[in-house]
Amino acid sequence: EVQLLESGGGLVQPGGSLRLSCAASGFTFGSFAMSWVRQAPGKGLEWVSIISDSGGTTYYADSVKGRFTISRDNSKNTLYVQMNGLRAEDTAVYYCARTPNDFCRGGDCYVVNWGQGTLVTVST
Amino acid sequence: EIVLTQSPDTLSLSPGEGATLSCRASQSVSSSYLAWYRQRPGQAPRLLIYGASSRATGIPDTFSGSGSGTDFTLTVSRLEPEDFAVYYCQQYASSPWTFGQGTKVEIK
Predict the structure, then answer these.
(1) Interchain pair B98, A109: CB under 8 A
(2) What is the mean pLDDT of residues B1-20?
């Protein structure tokens, strides 16, 4: 059974930093591209970032480009996102997400599996 | 950026009834790269449909997707109690991959 377990969320002041982790199990982690998707309280879903199976290719939403860095450690089956320069509008539940293949092969960039999410609150 | 607009915002129905949800794109979604997700209260989303019409693993045939170009539809032939939730469409034809604002299916 695929499991994605996020951690690292919490309360941080504007301008601060936070690193989220996602521990994956139940599948060959190093064979799949992974994403972060977020959801502000009471709002819809927003794709944040994606990283290829090897970690060699990354994409970011314009709203986080230059502030967030996605990475992965395939030896530890773990996905990360380093979030710097946090703003109030970054407040959201952050979901770790598995895509169907190594990196949108055949154009497939949807989410097959979702974690339960971790809440990040940016506030004074 | 492709903008997805879902309608209606809220659908009030009774268990056992059918539901039809719409997702309209601001420009053509090539190769029908469109997915649907269901999100129950307090839970993470779950993949229902990908490629506009292919059911994900474990999804019953009461769920079906259709459409192409700019107009897509999710149909639930018979609503079970656990189907009262928010539904999102997502396009992955071009980056940034975007979601619709969601349609809430509530119990009438």
Answers:
(1) no
(2) 97
Nearest Cα of chain A lies from the Cα of B56 at a distance, in angstroms, of 8
Average pLDDT per block of 10 residues along chain A, 124 residues long:
98 98 98 97 96 95 97 98 98 97 85 98 97
The answer to whether the Cβ–Cβ distance between B97 and A47 falls below 8 Å is yes
Q: What is the pLDDT of residues B48-107, one digit of tens each?
A: 999 999 999 999 999 999 999 999 999 999 999 999 999 999 999 988 999 999 999 999
Distance, C-alpha A8 to centroid of its chain? 12
CA dihedral (A29, A110, A93, A50) positive or negative? positive
Instruction: Please give the Cα distance from A68 to A49 (Å, whole number).
Output: 9
**Cα→Cα distances B30→A9, A96, A106, B87, Å:** 36, 26, 12, 22
DSSP state letters, A51-82: E-TTS--EEE-TTTTTTEEEEEETTTTEEEEE
- The residues with which A93 forms a beta bridge, in sequence order, are A39, A119
